[in-house]
Amino acid sequence: MNSSVDILVFDLGGVLVDWDGINPLVKLSNGKLDSEQARLFWMNTPWIAKLDTGACTPEAFSAAMADSLGLDMDAAEMTAQLDSWLQGAFPGADEMLGQLAKRHRLAVLSNNNALHWDKIEREFGLLHHFERLFASHLIGLRKPDAAVYQHVQRELGVSAERIAFFDDNIECVDAARRAGWQAFHTKGLDQVQAALRANGWLETV
What we know:
Blueprint: E1 7-10, E2 17-19, H1 23-28, H2 35-44, H3 46-52, H4 58-68, H5 75-84, E3 86-89, H6 93-101, E4 105-110, H7 114-123, E5 132-135, H8 136-139, H9 146-156, E6 163-167, H10 170-178, E7 182-185, H11 189-198
Parallel strand pairs: 1-4, 1-6, 4-5, 6-7
Antiparallel strand pairs: 2-3
């Protein structure tokens, strides 16, 4: 990988913030889904795409999700479950971003929705570090579709190879690499920091 970049772009859930929709979904499904099936549910289900791109409300999604998985709960209960799966920023994320922002441009590229984005804005204290925020439900594009990487690159005004991107889903990382970005498959803050340090973008302490 080229160690020279113009901007560092981060996913949020599973990278900078504690979101676990995998294990709770496995439990809710009563054995219908294993961990990988639950992960792919979030990547591939058509209703997820609608939620991520702002084409449906969290409440409508919750009703469809409960129905499609045969869950014995109404939309309000399912929405409350979804909200509870987003816990907060990983310890150390705020400090890391503050350090990075002194030397680098920072941006967010996140598949997100109105429910979780509002919580992140109100409670997590991270977004002020970023120059640009590309949330899927606000821009109408989602990962790993090629169009979202083209959109972000165009908006940032940099060449593809000078973007470094960190995401916990390999499909999104692979798509970013196809777009010419430097992309890193990282799960949790420790792996993010390890990748940053290995490339000289974060000081070793």
